[in-house]
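Postdoc handover notes: sequence design on the structure in folder B. Input tokens:
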């Protein structure tokens, strides 16, 4: 086994080059860290649909070349609960092109990329981390780094005490057009008794037809009959006819596990998990890449704090864990409520289990001025994690720190200390540094915002 030499500056290994791995690597490189990214291409050509907010996340992360591979927004039909709608759009991603662009983006920011498979890693007595990997020519090698980012998605090792949702599998089948013609990209979603289907067509006429099913009750046949199984289901779906007409299946059918999973041990002093390796959601929400980018955009600040300010290590780990956990359960409850809207098969196992998971907690809680309080929480500030006083609400248990650069907790405390709106405006004007001889416009706007949020209520006391 050969040993790869590294520089004396802190170095970080990122395991996995998907959206989360690439975004984290770029963020660390921007901070001046030496970053090496390990990645091997996925085994099949997946296709996904995403919203425009994923495009915004890619741009924020510096993934411009990956962003350029997204197809323009195309129409999406939905048949759910016996009702049809066509008000939404989505952008299709052809993952081979997208994944290759992610690596080019990372390289353009100075990230070193290795086409290699990581066998494992361990912390040496010296405190450095040994990464054992195999290159494409099957040569074994070892690299020493100071920190590890686990971004290998669902392929990442998981501990036994993870949170796991209802066991779910998606069957993806490609179809190619049998007659040439100019096609318009579009997609559709349709529910049925045993699950739901996502159907997409690119401008080249190729179709991507996916069924999402319950592992325990789908009665899946042996592998050799999975193709027939999918075709039989598609034949019974009204929206699928536009995708199967003038086309036929091609290649191998791919089965993908897509059970919602929240990993334990999301971060420690040696490693941080991002993307699906940390929290993988239900495919129904369509927020997989968005959730992955959300974890990756905050990860560099967490890592920087762990390495440069170890006295704030617990604070940094809490920040990453709390935000990832909050996002995971938020998206899980969004999915639960959408599943509950499908009432055509109330006793079907697929729908029964999913309308009850993860819990019965409401997505939004009632807010009153009394339910809003101040507390100290970890926050992200100038590329590191610090502790600050924030405003905690029922829908924002992690707290809200800033609004347009203004610290909200001290401002709200001043407003709550007086009894009239006039006194509140005066207190806010002084807090914001507005001249006494001018109309306190900023104070008025902030006070109005507090009232709109339901944080205060002066009633008739002007």
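Designed sequence:
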């Amino acid at each position: 086994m050969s040993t790869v030499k590294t520089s004396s500056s802190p170095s970080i290994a990122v395991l996995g080059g998907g959206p989360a791995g690439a975004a984290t690597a770029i963020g660390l490189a921007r901070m001046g860290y030496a970053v090496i990214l390990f990645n091997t291409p996925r085994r099949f050509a997946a296709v996904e649909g995403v919203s425009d907010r994923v495009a915004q996340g890619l741009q924020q992360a510096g993934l411009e070349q990956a962003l350029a591979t997204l197809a323009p927004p195309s129409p999406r039909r939905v048949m759910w609960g016996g009702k049809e709608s066509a008000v939404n759009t989505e952008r299709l991603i052809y993952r081979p092109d997208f994944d290759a662009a992610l690596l080019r983006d990372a390289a353009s920011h100075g990230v070193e990329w290795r086409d290699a498979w990581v066998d494992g890693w361990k912390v040496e007595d010296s405190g450095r981390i040994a990464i054992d990997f195999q290159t494409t020519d099957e040569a074994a090698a070892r690299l020493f780094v100071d920190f590890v980012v686990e971004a290998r998605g669902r392929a990442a090792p998981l501990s036994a005490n993870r949170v796991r949702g209802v066991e779910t599998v998606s069957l993806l089948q490609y179809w190619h057009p049998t007659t040439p013609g100019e096609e318009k990209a579009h997609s559709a979603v349709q529910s049925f008794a045993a699950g739901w289907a996502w159907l997409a067509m690119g401008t080249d006429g190729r179709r991507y037809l996916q069924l999402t099913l319950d592992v325990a009750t789908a009665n899946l046949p042996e592998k050799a009959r999975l193709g027939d199984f999918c075709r039989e289901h598609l034949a019974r779906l009204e929206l699928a006819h536009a995708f199967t007409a003038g086309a036929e299946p091609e290649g191998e059918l791919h089965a993908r596990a897509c059970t919602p999973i929240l990993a334990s041990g999301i971060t420690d002093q040696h490693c941080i998990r991002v993307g699906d390796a940390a929290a993988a959601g239900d495919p129904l929400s369509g927020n997989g890449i968005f959730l992955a980018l959300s974890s990756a955009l905050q990860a560099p600040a967490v890592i920087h704090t762990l390495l440069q300010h170890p006295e704030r290590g617990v604070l940094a780990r809490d920040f990453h864990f709390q935000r990832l956990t909050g996002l995971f359960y938020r998206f899980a409850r969004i999915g639960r409520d959408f599943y509950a809207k499908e009432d055509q098969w109330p006793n079907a196992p697929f729908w029964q289990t999913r309308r009850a998971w993860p819990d019965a907690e409401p997505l939004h809680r009632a807010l009153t001025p009394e339910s809003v309080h101040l507390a100290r929480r970890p926050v992200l500030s100038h590329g590191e994690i610090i502790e600050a006083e924030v405003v905690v609400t029922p829908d924002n248990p992690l707290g809200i720190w800033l609004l347009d650069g203004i610290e909200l907790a001290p401002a709200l405390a001043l407003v709550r200390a007086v009894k009239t709106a006039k006194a509140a405006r005066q207190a806010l004007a002084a807090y914001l540094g507005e001249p006494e001889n001018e109309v306190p416009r900023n104070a008025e706007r902030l006070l109005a915002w507090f009232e709109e949020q339901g944080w205060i209520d002066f009633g008739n006391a002007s």
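Context for whoever picks this up: Confidence is low (pLDDT under 50) at residues 2-8. Don't rerun without checking with the PI first.
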